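User: Fold this, then the next.

Assistant: Folding the first:
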Amino acid sequence: MNTQTQQAKTYFNLHTTGIGYLNNIREVKPKKGNPFWACRIAALAGDSTTPEYRYFDVNVVGALAEKLVKNCQKAVSEGHKMLISFVISDLWADLYTVNKDSSYHKKGDTAVSLKGRLIRINMIKKDGVKVYPKVSTEAEQQTAPVQNPEEAIIEALPLPEEILVQEEDGNELPF
């Protein structure tokens, strides 16, 4: 087969973009297969004055995304609010049975977990202060116009006092 007769493979990419808080950062070490990093994202949805949360359990894919998530692990475990702008690919739903009563579900209920692959992090804020990409000098910031209107919205978001996240086993975790 020569290059003229080879067909290029095509893919349909499903990407979900948003902003949200990083939670439950961990390294997963399966019995079979290679270890990988995973986390939960409490994505913001709705009116910016009273946002709602949508939770995504994601595997971290790519060297840069993995490095950024690892760098956030200590801050998240210390209780800092790590807001990210993210891209998730290959979103799917996973059904599970709740094994403990909570304020969201009763024991035995069927619940859904949204899962995907975290492929890119565009921005990180630690307790409201941008840490990635690196912030330029104050003089440059004052003279540079806002390039992205989404970034202006992110700047205006209030930090939540506490986010309650429910694990698959029904336990609630404050973040």
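Now the next one, as you asked:
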Amino acid sequence: MAKSKAAKRKRNAQVDLPQKLPKAVPNLTPPPDGGTPESTHVNAVVSDEELDITIETLAALAQYPSVTKSKACKDLRVAVYDFRQACTTGVNTAEGANLTARITGALADEKYIEARILLAEMRIRKEQPKIGALCRWVRDLDVVSGLSTQPKAHDNAPVKRSAKEMEILGVLDAILRVSTPIDTNTNAVDSTAPIAFQSIWDLRPSTAPLPVYASVLDKSILSEAPRSPSALRVIERTPGPLRKPPNHHPAILYTTAPNAVPLAPVGPPITYHAHPAVPGLGLALNVLSDAECKAIIAAGESVNFLPDAPLREDGDISILAHNFYWIIDTTFHDMLWARVSPYVPPSIGGRLVRGINRRFRVYRYVPGAEYRCHIDGAWPPSGILPDDTYVYDSSPEDKKQSSMYTFLLYLNDEFEGGETTFFMPAPREGTLNGYPVRPVMGAVAIFPHGESNGALLHEGTGVRKGAKYIIRTDVEYDVKPCEEG
């Protein structure tokens, strides 16, 4: 009897207590039917205000670890865990992975000290990252040397940098020390700065440069463009949003009829000069005549150079350069290759040289446009089918090819600035030696890429006055070494 009364009192007491409500299941809009595409912008899911409140709340709670362990924060801990599991970038994806993946994750999360520690481990273990990872690391750091804003930086004038820029340059230095030989130039200028600019390598002739850009502005250069509309025709057009990465402007590929942009049967006398300090870098002078350079610029200007302006989440528009994508005809290729082939390695590790990539990326740079520090990736040889279909990789199925050298052709040289600057690790840890190369009209800079060991970090230093026209393409080699007979 006593037990039943006690049980009744307990039941009555429980009725008077506040009841724990069941967790509400939020209504998902739209419902998870598996057919709805995932939102790609945060504002499609939550407002900016909600996101700011969430960030401020988490940042405040992070200052009090004991509070985050409390029962009141249990649901929050579950939500944070789910968010972390859903996140497919940064260190979250690299747990238990190799060094390369862990470095990639640390850089994605901007954990630069962690990245430097991992790079030091990679160096101690004598591991080499693959060229794709190396290119991605450098691209993610998004470094500008500062030479374009400091005309006398190579005279060791100080370049002002923020604390974050200094930290990023320290990571870049660590990356190069696992992939690039230490600079052995005993005459290099020493500096405790993150970049020690060396004197400009200047092989320009003493004669006055041609006013090429002036002829572009007054349109007189168009008299040297192809006359017939069929001589310069479009073979492919990719809308801006479908480009990789997406862009505000389309990518238009052109080609030319044979001799529409002519080369002389006998070119000017070429001289080749190896750079005194940067391994593998050379400059071949007089590859194209002044008239041949102007004819290429005229062809591009006749159809207009398009801005290269990638789509950004913040809505900003940043024009990197203006481009004219030209798949050269085989006649042009064969005549140009006959001129330059003596100045490139005939084979590398048994891989035979095959020619130049016919996909010419012709760029125009003006003040404010700068090609940031990067390492060139390898490209297959592009081509065109008889019906004018563009082929990204036209190498034979049983004899695949890929590039191992960059082919950088300068089309004018009357501008100020605009050097191609190469970077090597100095003997002093934390310092990169910067070697600017002055463009020379009609000359080709040739240097290695395609493999992580020896690929050269460089930038297209900004133009201070005028406009710079260049062509970027590649020297192609067999992918597989030839078999010894």
